[in-house]
């Protein structure tokens, strides 16, 4: 009887220990924890290789589920014209992104990757996506609400491909047209550029009513 009781006690203690370890391990994944606590907890668990991997962004052509898992890659990008296949559908894009994400989530810490795409005037890499004028043309409209609606449309078409990160907008004030990307500036007038930052709330969504000034990242 005593032996059975001791075994039961040992098993119970082991179970409690496992529960405690799992609870501690999940702290950085717990959305109820303060952001600073989650960040510090995660950083404290990461190896040097994992930190280096998370700071690395690779091009789509080099990204596979295996590479994401082996090297702990933090983000992937599609540069101009970098697509999964000619005339790829939104489903093709989403399948590609999901496959890479599976590799990232299979790692020890399960840190999801970020996929970024050049959607600077619409989701222009995606077949049949809506293409909008470059920023220099939009600035000429002097219509911030139009620019916001363009941001909203772009966000919807980016999310339809399974991507949540767009390399946009370019909030630059171009004073010299010899700069090769001057067309990405809304104007040489800072006031016009400032007015056109409505594209940001179009891409991200408006800040919630209880916004306190902390950085806000919306989602669609």
Automatic annotation (TrEMBL):
Residues 47-205 form the Glycoside hydrolase family 3 N-terminal domain. GO terms for biological process: glucan catabolic process. The keyword Hydrolase applies. Pfam families: Glyco_hydro_3 (PF00933). Residues 1-23 form the signal peptide. The keyword Hydrolase applies. Keywords: Hydrolase, Signal. Gene3D superfamilies: Glycoside hydrolase, family 3, N-terminal domain. GO terms for molecular function: beta-glucosidase activity. This is Glycoside hydrolase family 3 N-terminal domain-containing protein. It comes from Aegilops tauschii subsp. strangulata.
